[in-house]
Amino acid sequence: MTGAGEGGGAPAGPVDVYEVVVVRHGTRRARRSEVFLNYAQYGEPDADFTVDYYLWVLRSPTTTVLVDTGFARGPAEARGRTVLVDPADAYRRLGVDTAAPHTLVVTHAHYDHIGNVGLFPSATVVVSGAEVDFWTSPMAAKPLIGHFTEADEVAALTRADAEGRLRRFTGSVEVAPGVVVTEVGGHTPGQAMVTVRTGAGVVLLASDAVHFTEELERDMPFIAVTDLPALYRGLQTVRDLLASGAVDSVLTGHDAGVLDRLEPVSPELAGVAGVLGRLPS
Ligand SMILES: [Zn+2]
To answer: Family per UniProt (predicted)?
Structure first.
């Protein structure tokens, strides 16, 4: 694919091209009225709706960038989620060295995205400053907001900060050659997305800026939101990125069946981990 290197941007070399490993670590059976905000207003019948849970690993020949860490078993099961693979086990099976000083992007601080930050004691944690400030403010204790977080998991972020490993950003930041993190807000105050250059074009990891393709295509916000206009703007931003060709494909935060469209990382990891833009080994 072309596009990313055009227009006088950074020169593209082999180290700038990544493969995206998508780990489906959990799932749940929900109802449409449980996932779309104010669903009754659409006047549509309710129906079952599957929500899958993902984390992502970006790998180039020289660099590994982690995007979110999935949920921890306890908080997941307390919320009725099904654990398909413990993320710690998934990292081990993928050969990710959790002791290495990787870059770890936190797209937002909900329990299903930061549940295993503590597995990476040497990582540099990249997160929007607005996100950290919000979840360490009194507002984080409000029931309809705090429901989506775990205090000890947010504490893993402040611990990384105390250890000099937290990299706050505003706007947009390139965290590795070819990997750019951009905050859009909406779902949470510092909700961020990641663009990465792959052999299959520029991929946008929308995380929970777009939970589901239907949310994007029908402009139907997810039920959990801290700033509704910002959420709508974020959806428009993603549509604009696609329409302009700035990104070639989008991976959403919680669509079911994403792995069905990807090549398994290995036969043993079929159904658990798929790869987009696989690099030659
Ligand atoms: Zn999520």
So the answer is: Belongs to the metallo-beta-lactamase superfamily.
